[in-house]
Design a protein that fits this description.
- By secondary structure, this protein is α+β, with helices and mostly antiparallel strands.
- The chain has a single domain, classed as Aminopeptidase (3-Layer(aba) Sandwich).
- It has helices spanning 20-24, 100-105, 129-143, 158-166, and strands at 10-15, 30-36, 48-57, 80-86, 89-97, 113-120, 148-154, 170-175, 187-193.
- Strands 1-4-5-6-7-9-8 form a seven-stranded mixed β-sheet. A two-stranded antiparallel ribbon has the order 2-3.
Length: 208
């Protein structure tokens, strides 16, 4: 598989019974300096707005969101985990919740998988690791016959929005004032229906 750069081999592995502590060792935090301009009009590239003052966003500090808290929220042993390694160093990971009752309890469509988390080590970002992780998760889900995948993100997570759009996801929901303690953030749901399931769940190929 193509590496982070020419001299580094990137390997994506499926993990059974993953260590959540090891998973959490990869930070998910990033600096928010720009956000999608709302309302979202047309297709990518989307208009942006400057965020002032910039701030640090860390999903792991939100109560219940840290990987070590996940067993209280969904059946970790039935989720799909993949990890990225560059020359033997763990540089990223992704997890999809696939148990329908778990997906529904977490606010998703039980007919679909829910991409719960995707993270890349800061020094390995913008080098194709996220794309490789997402592609492997999609491959696994299609092998198991799941109709598609959805993921929740926010207008302030530009890198994630760009990743999902480039991977063929479409925006299926945009909701302001969803996060009561974060009124400046808008919830965006991206969805991708796999082509083999298109007869039941037709999808639009546009990124908006």
């Amino acid at each position: 598989m193509a590496g982070i750069h020419a001299a580094v081999l990137l390997e994506i592995r499926r993990e059974d019974g993953p260590s959540l502590t090891a998973y959490a060792a990869i930070p998910i935090a990033y600096d928010v300096r720009e956000a999608l301009q709302l309302p979202i009009v047309g297709t990518a590239p989307f208009a942006r707005r400057i965020v002032r003052p910039p701030y640090r966003k860390d999903y792991d500090v939100i109560p219940g969101n840290h990987p070590c808290d996940w067993p209280a929220r969904f059946a970790v042993d039935r989720a799909e985990f993949v990890a990225a390694y560059a020359d033997g160093e763990r540089v990223g990971g992704a997890v999809a919740v696939v148990e329908p009752s778990d997906v529904e309890r977490l606010g998703g469509d039980p007919r679909l998988a829910l991409l719960w988390d995707l993270r890349v080590a800061p020094h390995a970002r913008r080098r194709g690791v996220g794309r490789a992780l997402l592609a492997r998760i999609e491959e696994r889900l299609q092998d198991t016959g799941i109709a598609g995948i959805a993921v929740e993100t926010q207008d302030i997570n530009l890198a994630a929005c760009q990743l999902y759009c480039a991977a063929g996801f479409v925006i299926t929901s945009v909701e302001a004032n969803t996060y009561h303690d974060l009124p400046e953030e808008t919830r965006i749901v991206w969805t991708k229906i796999f082509r083999l399931a298109s007869a039941r769940h037709p999808a639009n190929d546009r990124c908006g």
